[in-house]
């Protein structure tokens, strides 16, 4: 551990730990805050998110102890794997803190390993610095959570990777939801892309939809899904993709979840989450994950354009 202090600047304590997981997998967990109650089940009971993960986003973790750990993202750099957050609320076991921030940097040192470099900056209310033993307590608390994440990833080497994104749509949540559920109408709504639809089922979970795609689109001949969940109250639909031409890699499994949230009388936000496993057990590069999400949002843009051009439909 390397504590340091510079005049009236916040005191700083830093340390690093080897982690038996690739930097890419560990970083993806850092970015998937909603997974923390599952990944750190012994510590985190629930989490609330205000924002989209970019600087300014606030995370409020409800811990199993009954206390709160609340942070605001200051820096999030996926290229360098650096995440820095200001700690807004925490039960401190060391001293009364005036300010408190934590920075984590992940550095690759192998296909399945990395080094996590942690730096904690703090100010005590009385202007002093912590004794070395208490600085160690401060940083060990963060490494305790990191250890839980590492153990989860080691225990779940084939756990699906997740891609999340969101897109604003210039149509009401109700109209868009009705269009999304009207799968037989997709050849009309997405004319030139979808040529036909086959439906096996009554629209309840288990229903299979097979979209016949236009060869000109260059994305294969069919897209086949099985409905897993459809909640009209929360406007959430989730499907397992059974058949699709993949341009990103050979997929072992593939699920797509879409949630529609109202943002106005004629606008909404679509939140997309794709869970996937590659056959070789690896994860996609950020560029390919972006391609994954953009493919689905391309269809969404077609639906949006149709609803704007036909304001009387699905009203």
UniProtKB/TrEMBL annotation:
Domain Bet v I/Major latex protein, which positions?
Answer: 14-155, 160-309
Q: Give the location in the cell.
A: Nucleus
Fetch the InterPro entries from UniProt: Bet_v_I/MLP, Plant_def-hormone_signal, START-like_dom_sf
Q: What molecular function terms (GO) are annotated for this protein? A: abscisic acid binding; protein phosphatase inhibitor activity; signaling receptor activity
Work out whether the entry's keyword set contains Nucleus.
yes
Q: Which Pfam families match?
A: Bet_v_1
Q: Which UniProt keywords apply?
A: Nucleus
Q: What is its main location?
A: nucleus
Provide the GO biological process annotations. abscisic acid-activated signaling pathway; defense response
Question: What Gene Ontology cellular-component terms does the record carry?
Answer: cytoplasm; nucleus
Task: List membrane-spanning regions.
Answer: none
Family to which this protein belongs: Belongs to the BetVI family.
Protein name, entry field: Bet v I/Major latex protein domain-containing protein
What is the native source organism of this protein?
A: Leersia perrieri
């Amino acid at each position: 551990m390397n504590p340091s202090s510079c005049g009236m600047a916040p005191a700083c304590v830093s340390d690093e730990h080897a982690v038996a997981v690739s930097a890419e997998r560990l970083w993806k967990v850092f970015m998937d805050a909603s997974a923390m109650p599952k990944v750190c089940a012994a510590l985190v009971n629930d989490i609330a998110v205000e924002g989209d993960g970019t600087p300014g986003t606030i995370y409020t973790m409800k811990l199993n102890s009954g206390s709160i750990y609340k942070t605001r993202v200051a820096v999030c750099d996926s290229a360098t794997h650096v995440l820095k957050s200001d700690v807004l609320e925490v039960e401190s076991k060391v001293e009364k803190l005036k300010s408190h921030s934590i920075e984590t940097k992940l550095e690759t040192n192998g296909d399945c390993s990395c080094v996590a470099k942690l730096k904690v900056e703090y100010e005590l209310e009385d202007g002093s610095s912590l004794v070395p033993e208490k600085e160690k307590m401060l940083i060990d608390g963060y490494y305790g959570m990191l250890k839980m994440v590492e153990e989860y990833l080691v225990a779940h080497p084939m756990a699906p990777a997740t891609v999340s994104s969101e897109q604003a749509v210039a149509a009401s949540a109700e109209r868009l939801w009705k269009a999304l559920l009207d799968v037989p109408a997709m050849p009309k709504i997405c004319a030139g892309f979808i040529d036909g639809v086959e439906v096996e089922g009554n629209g309840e979970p288990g229903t299979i939809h097979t979209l016949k795609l236009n060869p000109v689109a260059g994305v294969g001949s069919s897209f086949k899904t099985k409905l897993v969940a459809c909640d009209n109250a929360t406007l959430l639909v989730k499907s397992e993709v059974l058949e699709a031409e993949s341009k990103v890699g050979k997929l072992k499994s593939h699920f797509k979840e879409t949630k529609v949230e109202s943002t106005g009388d004629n606008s909404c936000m679509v939140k997309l989450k794709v869970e996937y496993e590659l056959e070789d057990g690896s994860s996609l590069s950020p560029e390919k994950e972006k391609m994954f999400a953009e493919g689905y949002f391309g269809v969404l843009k077609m639906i949006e354009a149709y609803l704007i051009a036909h304001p009387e439909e699905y009203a």
